[in-house]
Write a structure and sequence with these properties.
It contains four helices and two strands. It is mainly alpha-helical and 93 residues long.
Length: 93
């Protein structure tokens, strides 16, 4: 398993939930493509091969960025508020 700590498990769950939130929005689904190591890990490999801590997105159209940012902000606000303790990252000690 690529997660060495509880913090990494929680981070992976947050990333997964953020991906669902982004691509549940029709505007964002048309405007963005999910790419990079996290995309490979989540969509193509049968088992996780490595821990990833980011989401790589590429925009598919030209135009103002404001609508894109507004949709992202709305989706992330919909993720909700923290309801319980979160494990500290190794950097937080």
């Amino acid at each position: 398993m690529p997660w060495a700590s509880q913090w990494q498990v929680e981070q992976d769950l947050i990333i997964s939930r953020a991906i669902v939130a982004i691509f549940s929005d029709p505007f964002l689904r048309d405007e963005l493509r999910f790419r990079g190591g996290t995309a490979l890990n989540k969509l193509h490999f049968p088992k996780p091969l490595r821990y990833s801590e980011d989401i790589d997105l590429a925009r598919t159209t030209a135009g103002p960025i404001r609508p894109l940012l507004e949709h992202l902000q709305k989706r992330f606000c919909m993720l909700g508020r923290l309801r319980g303790p979160v494990s500290l990252s190794p950097a937080d000690g």
